[in-house]
C-alpha cells in the first residue's frame, strides 16, 4: 500500500511548553485517517505544521515523497486543506469563489469546476451568493475548493463542527466516496468519538501532544475471541456446570461469555440439548469511546 503522508518524530514547542511531543504516524492511499483527542491535545497544531501555517520544531513531514521542511512547494501541491473554517468571499457566488480560487493553479478548466460542483452536490446553489449559504453548504463549497487541483491528500480540521445531523452525514458520505472512487487519502481531526467511528478507517489517539495509540476501526471485528451475551430461560442446576466449563458471568436475564465463534455454536447446542430456551445471542463490541477511555486511562 502506498504511503501518502508520514510524520517522523515531529515535535513542537512554544516557549517552554511542549505542544507536540515526538509524533510519528503514516497515512495510506485511499483511507480516512482520524486525529482524535480532547480540545488542546495538539490536533490543530499538527495540521498547521502539515500545511505550512506553523514551522516544524523537530522531525519531518513527508507528503507523497516530498519533505515539507526541505521542499515545501512541491509537498503542498499534493494537499487540499480546510483548517478550522472554510473562508469565502461572502459577496460573490459559490461559482465565482471557485473561479477566483482556480486562478491559483494552472490548467483548471470550466469543465473541471463544473465536475467538482456536481461531485459535492452544489449545482442548485452554486450561483447564489455565499452569504446566503447554510453552514453545510459552505463546508461543501470549501470541499470543492480543496478538490479543484486534484490533490492526493485532503486535510480537514473539525469538518463537522456546527453541522446538523444531516450535514454531518453528507460530509461523511462525501469522504467515503472520495476515498473509494478517487483513491484520495483524507485526514480528519475531531473530538467527537462517535462521529470518528463512523467516518474513519484508522484513528490516531493524541493526548497532550503525544501519540497514545493507533486503532483500526475494524480491529474488534477481527479479534479471535469476542464477548457474547446470552439471554436464556432459568439455567437451574445447569448453571454450576456451565460456570466450570465455560467461565460465564451472570448478567441481567442471562450471562456473558468470552468465546470464539465455534465455541458459541457448541454452547448453543449444549443449552438446546439441556432443554434451556435461548431468547437472544448478541455479540458485544466495545464502542470507540470505551476503547478511548481504556487506552488513555481516563
Shape verdict: elongated
Q: Reading side by side through the largest sheet, how are the strands ordered?
A: 6-7-8-3-9-10
Radius of gyration: 24 Å
Return residue spans where pLDDT drops below 50 for at least 5 consecutive residues.
none
User: Can you tell me the CATH architecture of the largest domain?
Assistant: 3-Layer(aba) Sandwich
How many strand units?
14
Q: Can you identify the CATH class of the largest domain?
A: Alpha Beta
Average per-residue pLDDT, rounded, comes to 86
Helix content: 25-40%
Cα distance spanning the termini = 34 Å
Determine the CATH topology of the largest domain: Rossmann fold
Strand content: 25-35%
Strand count, sense and closure of the main sheet?
Answer: 6 strands, mixed
**Number of DSSP helices?**
11
Class based on secondary structure composition and strand pairing: alpha/beta
Total domains: 2
CATH superfamily assignment of the largest domain? P-loop containing nucleotide triphosphate hydrolases
Q: Give, in order, the helices and strands.
A: EEEHEEHEHHHEHEHEEHEHEEHEH
Amino acid at each position: 500500500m502506498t504511503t501518502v503522508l508520514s510524520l517522523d518524530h515531529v515535535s513542537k514547542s512554544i516557549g517552554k511548553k511542549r505542544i507536540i511531543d515526538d509524533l510519528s504516524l503514516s497515512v495510506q492511499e485511499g483511507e480516512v485517517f482520524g486525529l482524535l483527542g480532547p480540545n488542546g491535545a495538539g490536533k490543530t497544531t499538527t495540521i498547521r505544521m502539515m500545511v505550512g501555517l506553523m514551522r516544524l520544531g523537530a522531525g519531518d513531514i513527508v507528503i507523497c515523497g516530498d519533505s515539507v521542511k526541505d521542499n515545501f512547494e512541491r509537498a503542498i501541491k499534493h494537499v487540499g486543506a480546510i483548517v478550522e473554517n472554510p473562508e469565502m468571499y461572502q459577496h460573490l457566488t459559490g461559482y465565482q469563489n471557485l473561479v477566483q480560487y482556480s486562478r491559483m493553479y494552472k490548467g483548471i478548466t470550466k469543465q473541471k469546476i463544473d465536475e467538482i460542483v456536481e461531485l459535492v452536490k452544489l449545482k442548485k446553489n452554486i450561483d447564489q451568493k455565499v452569504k446566503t449559504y447554510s453552514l453545510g453548504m459552505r463546508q461543501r463549497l470549501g470541499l470543492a475548493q480543496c478538490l479543484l487541483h486534484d490533490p492526493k491528500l485532503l486535510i480537514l480540521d473539525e469538518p463537522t463542527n456546527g453541522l446538523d445531523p444531516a450535514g454531518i452525514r453528507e460530509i461523511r458520505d462525501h469522504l467515503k466516496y472520495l476515498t473509494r472512487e478517487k483513491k484520495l487519502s483524507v485526514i480528519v481531526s475531531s473530538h467527537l468519538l462517535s462521529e470518528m467511528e463512523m467516518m474513519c478507517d484508522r484513528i490516531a489517539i493524541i493526548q497532550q501532544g503525544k501519540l497514545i495509540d493507533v486503532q483500526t476501526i475494524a480491529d474488534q471485528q477481527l479479534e479471535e475471541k469476542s464477548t457474547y451475551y446470552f439471554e436464556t430461560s432459568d439455567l437451574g442446576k445447569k448453571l454450576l456446570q456451565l460456570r466450570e466449563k465455560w467461565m460465564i458471568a451472570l448478567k441481567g436475564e442471562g450471562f456473558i461469555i468470552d468465546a470464539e465463534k465455534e465455541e458459541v455454536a457448541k454452547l448453543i447446542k449444549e443449552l438446546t440439548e439441556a432443554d434451556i430456551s435461548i431468547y437472544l445471542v448478541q455479540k458485544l463490541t466495545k464502542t470507540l469511546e470505551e476503547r478511548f477511555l481504556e487506552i488513555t486511562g481516563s
